[in-house]
Each structure stands twice: as C-alpha cells, then as structure tokens.
Amino acid sequence: MTTVRTAQGRIDPAGPGPADQQGPGHRRGKRHSENLPGYLFLSPWLIGLLAITAVPMLLSLYLSFTDYDVLTPLSEANWVGWDNYRQMFTEDPTYWHAVQVTLTFALVAVPLKLAAALGVALLLNRAMRGIGVFRGLFYLPSLLGGSVALAIVWVSMFNRDGAFNSFLGLFGIEGAPWVNDPRWALETLMLLAIWQFGAPMVIFLAGLKQVPTELYEAASVDGAGRWRQFRNVTLPMLSPVIFFNLVLETINGFQGFTSAFVLSNGTGGPVDSTLMYTLNLYIKGFVELDMGYASAMAWVFLLAIGLITVVLFRTGRFWVHYSDAEEH
Amino acid sequence: MRGRLRLLALILILLVVLYPLIWMVGTSFKSPEEIASNIGLLPETFTPGNFSSGWQKFDVNFGRFFLNSAMVSGLTVLGNTISCLLAAYAFGRLRFRMRKFWFSIMIATLLLPGHVLIIPQYILFRNLGWVGGDWPYLPLLVPQFLATEAFFVFLMVQFMRGIPRELDEAAKIDGASPYSIFQHVILPLSRPALVTTAIFSFIWTWNDFFRQLVFLSELEDYTAPVALTLFIDSTSESSVGPMFAMSLLSLVPVFLFFVAFQRMLVEGINTSGLKG
C-alpha cells in the first residue's frame, strides 16, 4: 500500500530500501556487497546531481556576489560583495512589489483551490454512479491549465469583450476589462489557478476512501449530526492529506510563471500587477541580462521557499493527525 | 432527494469547469466578425480557415513548431524513463555505501524549485556554448538523461518498494547478478511505473514553457508553446481566431493522452501527488 502512504503525505527521509524491509542483522556481513552495481546504476543521477544541479548552484551563489552579465566572460565578472543583496532589499521597490504580488497570489489562490478541491471531493465521495467520469473531467483542467494555450484562452475570456463580460451582460452588468485592469489582473490569474483544483481533489478523494466507515457510524450513534461528523471525523482523519496538498500547492503557488507571462506579454503588467517573483527573475536575468542580480534573487527565493516549507512542517505538528499515532 | 441535489450541484460545477474548454473549441471555428458579434458557445457558420491561417501565420509554419515540440517531448520521455529507472533501482533494491545519504539528497532536490535552477543552469550551458549552439535542444535534453527529474525517481522507488523481495532473493540464490535481476525481474515488473513516468513526462514537457522560452532563441527552433506567445504580440482582431485554432491544436496531444490513459493518470497522481 505504498500509494496510500504517500497520498497521506509521508515522505520517509530515511529512505526505502532493502535494509528497512528485512529483519535486523540480516546478512550483515554482506551489507555493502552491492557497492559497484549500486554506484553504476546510480551514476547518471550522480552526474546529473553534480553537473546539472550542485555545481551550477554553487556557481550562481558565487555570481550573486558579482556583476556578471552573461555577455562578458565569467572570469571578467567583478566581485561586488553584498551589493546585489543590499540593492534588492533596500533600493529596489519593484523587487518588493513582486514579493507582495507573489504572496498575495499564494495566500488567496492556494486556500481557495484547496477548499474547492475538498468541497467537490466531498460531493463526489457520496455520489455513487458516474464517479469515475466526473473525477476524470474535473481533473482535465489540471492537465491543460499550465499550458500557454490555456493561458491565452483564459486571458481572452476575461478581456473587455471576452466571454465573461458577455455573460455578465446577460444580467445587465457591465464588467471591467479584467485582464487590463491592475485591480483585477491578478485575480483572473488566481481564478485560473483555482480552476485547476482537480489534482488536489483526486488526492482528497483517495484520502476520503481511507476514512473507516465505523467512525461515522460510531459518531452518529453518539448523536453527531453531519456537521459534527465532518468537523470531528472527516477533518482530523483527512488532515495528513490536507497537509500534503497544502505543502505541494504552496510550493507550486509561489512559482506561477506561464499565465502571468501570457497575460502581460512578459512584462508583469498592467502596472506590475502580475509581476510574480519568477517573472521578475526572468526579466532581470534574461531580458536585462543582470545575471549576478538574478542569481541573488534566485538564492533568496530558494531560501524563502525552504523556510516556508519548514514553517509549514512545524505548524503541521499542531493540526495534522496521524491515526496510527506514529511519531512523525 | 439528497442524492439528486448532489448530482445537480456536481453537474453545475462541471459545466462551469468545462465552459472555457468548450468556448475555446467554439471560438477557434468562428470567423473574425462572429468572434466580435456572436457571444454564443458555438459558431453559426463553421470557419475552418482559422486553422490554415494560424498554421501559416509566421515565417516558419506551425508544423515545424509541433515537430520541434514532439521531438523535445519524445526525447525527454526516453531520457527520463531510462535514467530515472536506473537510479530508482539503485535506491530501491541495492545495498551500497551512503545509500541513505544520497536518497535524502534526492528527496531534497524534489523540493528545489525549477525556476531557481534555471539561472545557474543557463549560466553553465551558456559557458559550454550550448545556448544557441549547433543544436539548441541540448540544454533542454541533457538534464533529462541524467535523472534530474527527482519526481520520477521517487515515483519509481515507491513503485519498486511494492515488488516482492522474494523475487530477487530467489534469483539471487540461483546466482543471478544485480544486473540480470534488473533486466529479468525488475524491468519487466516496473512497466506500470514506466508508463506513468512516460505519460507525465510527455505531458509536462509538451506543456512546459519557461525552460523552452529561456533556451530557444531562433524562430525555427521554437516549440509550440513558445510560438504561441508570438500571437500575443499581434493583438489585432483578425488574429484571435487563428490564435485559438493553434492553441486548440497544441492541446490535442494532451487531450488524447487524457482520453487514452485517464484512469492511469488519476491513479498516477495518487501515487505521489504528481501535478498535472
């Protein structure tokens, strides 16, 4: 039942493997007899880790302290100390604006997306017939939604004369030019993210299937109504899955790029209202070619995401309930 | 009564969810005049002309962009399945020094945001002369042959945990080496995980935009998503139909995968919370 374990949000940091699945002391003498084949099979991954991930990351850490601009050779990059970081934190209002846009996006879109996913999952869980068809169709936007094509459709839909305003027109409401209005542009992107609630919904559905029916029976014998059952049985039993989805969606939420790029044609407009962190990073690095500065931005982003993940895991201890009381 | 209400609610939500997709299909068959005037879902007269004018809209036609996309996605599938399977076999079934250490590093890279890695990788590939080099797809493809998609490594390790140990133990007693166990036991039994990896890596690469935008600079090298953004520059009324037509076409492969492998895709996200 590995699937269930992961769906419940457990990533075993110690790692799976032969040693875990055998009794203690089993073949202890030959424990590392597979060193050669082990490293042979691992070698593509190891090379990738070093050459594609670790070394470039360290290089960019170094470059974040230089004025490297891509066009001049690496060796001619000038050491500027903490200048990039100082500039970012104290002299670049656009940077802080992008941070604010990204936080707003994640704080609004992620909870709403999860709420939609849970709501529809609860509706689906009780429905008997046709559940597979519904599940599949609700999931479809998650497959298509991240594409440029769908972002294009979405933006057209929320144009001044797009489908959404035509719909409002039926009720005599005159809509705003949503995507060109700095007050509404980010909201249309949030809506696009929420529209893709299918992926977390499928995970919620799998989690709901794991809640033992006896618990509901016991609760209703005790006179608990539907709401009490939801509060006291469903939510706690589902909390590991909620946590798993929350971590995943939050990390994703901070990385929205495609839709913001399409809406603003790569500028972050109107009036920087859709300037997500990653879009700002792209503009600084690949349009303005300020790679030293962009490296610094990338590292701060990395640390921020790491910090947020740690905070999520810390707070998770207070509300995530593991039924088998296993220390986690 | 309650069941009916529930069904009604589900159907209503489904209509809202599917509306943008149906609207996209309808609009891509509307003439420019109809796009401005007809707010209905379906066109009054079907205008397939959007497809041909979209196809030839730019100096390089869309056939080339789709071919480029198919090549990048196809080779990515090949690279991911092979390299991630090898790594997963090592992590999941072999005993070697520092296995746990490397495994925890792999888990850590799961959480590394791809948008952060692209800056250092760009600097590296640029200095290797691969960006805008003879074959501009190297920066997109080489990482995929080195198992850098930790998600798939993780997915396959999880899958291999489920393959009974007795099978390799029996083979081992018969004198089989780790290599032949891999070839004759693990490889055939891992087919479901390989298929899931192949499908998801195809769809993700086909939809991917950021990496392709960063690494491809010549029009003739563009993939479909990068080419689609060219439509955004030309915002004239007449280009909306062709833009929708090409957008629709670019989603067809993903949609076909969805139809063919729907159950598997849904099971796939259950396996490790993969995103669509």
UniProtKB/TrEMBL annotation, chain B:
Residues 66-261 form the ABC transmembrane type-1 domain. SUPFAM superfamilies: MetI-like. This is Sugar ABC transporter permease. The chain crosses the membrane at residues 7-26, 65-89, 101-125, 137-160, 181-206, 243-261. It comes from Actinoplanes auranticolor. It is found in: Cell membrane. The keyword Membrane applies. It is a multi-pass membrane protein. Belongs to the binding-protein-dependent transport system permease family. PROSITE patterns: ABC_TM1 (PS50928). Keywords: Cell membrane, Membrane, Transmembrane, Transmembrane helix, Transport. The keyword Lipid metabolism does not apply. GO terms for cellular component: plasma membrane. InterPro entries: MetI-like, MetI-like_sf. It comes from the Bacteria. GO terms for biological process: transmembrane transport.
